[in-house]
């Protein structure tokens, strides 16, 4: 018997090569807000609804412990799924295009915490894959 139950993801930490560029992406494109800044560590905590994404500069005190920066052949995270609502595929694609983000793949239906629902995938400036996950599709 475990002495705890998991309720949700608290935070995800991403090592990034250009902290200001990544901050612009996560704030302007995804709407995250800064919760706390620790530039002495090369760390910025971003609020993402009930959870957080922490950005760590690979050249900073914390980030250097992780070794070389990520690249196409060496990623440290497969993807982050951010639950969004409403899920208006055309509006989301238009918003991303305005920020120079190409979404080559069609929206697909995938399983998530709430069940099967729409998913749209793209990459952040460091090549980390972001999934925008819509609400589960309920059977009629």
TrEMBL record:
One family name in Pfam for this protein: Glyoxalase
SUPFAM superfamilies xref list: Glyoxalase/Bleomycin resistance protein/Dihydroxybiphenyl dioxygenase (SSF54593)
Descriptive protein name: VOC family protein
PANTHER family according to UniProt: GLYOXALASE DOMAIN-CONTAINING PROTEIN 5 (PTHR21366:SF14), GLYOXALASE FAMILY PROTEIN (PTHR21366)
Matching InterPro entries: Glyas_Bleomycin-R_OHBP_Dase, Glyas_Fos-R_dOase_dom, GlyoxalaseI/FosfomycinResist, VOC_core
Residue ranges of every copy of the VOC domain listed in the record: 8-135
Species annotation: Cognatilysobacter lacus
Gene3D superfamilies associated with the record: 2,3-Dihydroxybiphenyl 1,2-Dioxygenase, domain 1
Chain coiled-coil ranges: none
